[in-house]
Amino acid sequence: MRPRLLVIVLSSAAALAVVAAVAVGAGRDARAGITPKPVATERGRANSFSVERIGDGFNRPTWAGAAPGDDALWVLEQPGRVLRLDGDERTTEIDISDRVLLGAEQGLLGIAFHPDFATNDRLFLHWSDRRGDTRVAEFKDGKQQRELLFVDQPEENHNGGQLAFGPDGRLYLGLGDGGGAFDPEERAQDPRQRLGKLLSVNVDAPKPDWRVHLTGLRNPWRFSFDPAMGEVWIGDVGQDEIEEVNRVLLEGDEPPKNLGWDAFEGTAKTEDGDYRLDKAGELVWPVAQYTHDDGCSVTGGYVYHGTKFPKLSGRYLYGDFCSGVLWSLKPAPKGLATDVRREQAQVPQLAHIGPDAEGEPVFVSASGALYRAR
Ligand SMILES: [Ca+2]
Ligand SMILES: [Ca+2]
To answer: Which ligand has the nearest atom to the CA of 264?
Structure first.
């Protein structure tokens, strides 16, 4: 029975694809009849914390956070350095600046520590190589080991950035659509392309086994997993109008869910006439969004489980690179966010919000400064 069922499923999927193709070919909008779910917007103000500068003089920092088993703060600098801050002491743990192309959205963009880093010293870096193409490789004792990924980058922008281990122990990477306005080559909706996707790999497999989990991303600069719920939270940077926050539970081997770009920017249809909408995976709407009245580039943060700021407990903290505005929202049990609050505190050129070893937020400003909540 099983093989026959599979055939039926496949043929109905193929039939659907034909119908969709005919609809687009006939000039009809394949998005007609798709109703976005309601999305949360700002409900008011909050003053849960203020920020204080804790460090200065970094060279375009892109990330700060903790390594397993280490109380120190680790910092990435976009030109290609990995630093470790122990009190006032800064040490350069890795320097790959001779392998990195530095641009507005190019450089050393992401780091993830192996869950057993405390005993095996394995970490992973994501950067733009001298030709501007994407590289992900493993490092041990400060030296490059195996390369895990190479992706040709057609344009300078939309390279994604974040690397993070998921609750399944796989290493996740977010890649943007490859650049240009409105995904000109329709890569984010193309299941054969790695651009515009959330991907993962088993770092212990003999050959890298990259798997696609989400399609339809524009530029997932920062994402994080909530250890309490196992969901991934993604700030997907918008085009001209809307910045969005996505919350997705990644479930095993089901077809990749579709975050909608470039048919949709947030919950709005794009102006683009040549969009494509791959219907293979469930369409997932953002849980929160804001317009370019309040910023221009979302910086995804994390769900706070620290102890110093009880008002933030269980809330997702995020902000905007351009305006420096910070928000937090309360995840509802299913999907929708509620109670989106704009914090009084702001951080200019907000590149990253990372938990330190205690789960407390460190705010990274691309201007060169680090801030803590207080
Ligand atoms: Ca989207
Ligand atoms: Ca397009």
So the answer is: 1
What DSSP line would sit under 299-318, residue for residue? Answer: EEEEE---SS-GGGTT-EEE
Give pTM, 2 decimals: 0.91
* Interatomic CA distance for residues 220 and 135, integer angstroms: 16
Report which bound ligand comes closest to the CA of 180. Answer: 2
Q: Give the tens place of pLDDT for each residue, 245-295.
A: 999 999 877 889 999 999 999 999 998 888 999 988 899 999 999 999 999
Instruction: Say how many Å lie between the CA of residue 185 and the centre of ligand 1.
Output: 17
Å from CA of 358 to ligand 2 middle? 42
- Give phi and psi for 64, each to the nearest 5: -150, 145
**More confidently predicted of 336 and 109:** 109
DSSP state of 38: P
For 68-96, the pLDDT digits (tens) are 999 999 999 999 999 999 988 999 999 99
Q: Residue 367 in contact with residue 315, Cβ under 8 Å?
A: no
